[in-house]
């Protein structure tokens, strides 16, 4: 996200602080608000620093333009399943989405507690701290 901050001429952390505000993020990941509503709230928070609501909406939509969804076999959106990490049902849903047992799944997260919960549910877990660790872990898969 820091790259997107820089690209938009914003201070580092601006996007993350708007997108991951705890009360907003919790509502999004548990499905109390839709992804579109979450994006709108984030854009509204960023409108002033982006110069307009339209500019902020363009920036928020730019996150999806990164093309990361195509890099995965499946994406489990916690807002759509109504539960959030570290609930073990999230990990079960992910394994079901790709049609394998949890033992065949690699779970990567920057929150150690989420990784521990995934491991307790039978997944291989990687506490993400650096891209080199991720490269090494995915090379084994």
Question: What's the quick description here?
Answer:
The protein has 141 residues and is mainly alpha-helical. The chain has nine helices and two strands.
What layout of secondary structure does this protein have?
Blueprint: H1 2-7, H2 14-19, H3 22-29, H4 35-50, H5 53-64, H6 78-81, H7 88-98, E1 106-109, H8 112-120, E2 124-127, H9 131-139
Parallel strand pairs: 1-2
Helix pairs in contact: 3-4, 4-5
Explain how this protein is built:
The chain has 141 residues and is mostly helical. The protein is 57% helix and 6% strand. The protein is built from nine helices and two strands, in the order H-H-H-H-H-H-H-E-H-E-H. The chain has helices at 2-7, 14-19, 22-29, 35-50, 53-64, 78-81, 88-98, 112-120, 131-139, and strands at 106-109, 124-127. Strands 1-2 form a two-stranded parallel sheet. Strand 1, helix 8 (112-120) and strand 2 form a beta-alpha-beta unit. The chain is globular and about 50 Å long. The two termini are 26 Å apart.
Overall shape: it is globular
| Percentage of residues in DSSP E strands | 5-15%
The total count of helices amounts to 9
Q: Profile the largest sheet.
A: 2 strands, parallel
Number of strands: 2
Oligomeric state of this protein: single chain
Instruction: Please give the share of residues in helix.
Output: 55-70%
Structural class: mainly alpha
* CA radius of gyration: 16 Å
- The largest beta-sheet arranges its strands as 1-2
Low-confidence stretches: none
Q: What distance lies between the first and last C-alpha atoms, to the nearest angstrom?
A: 26 Å
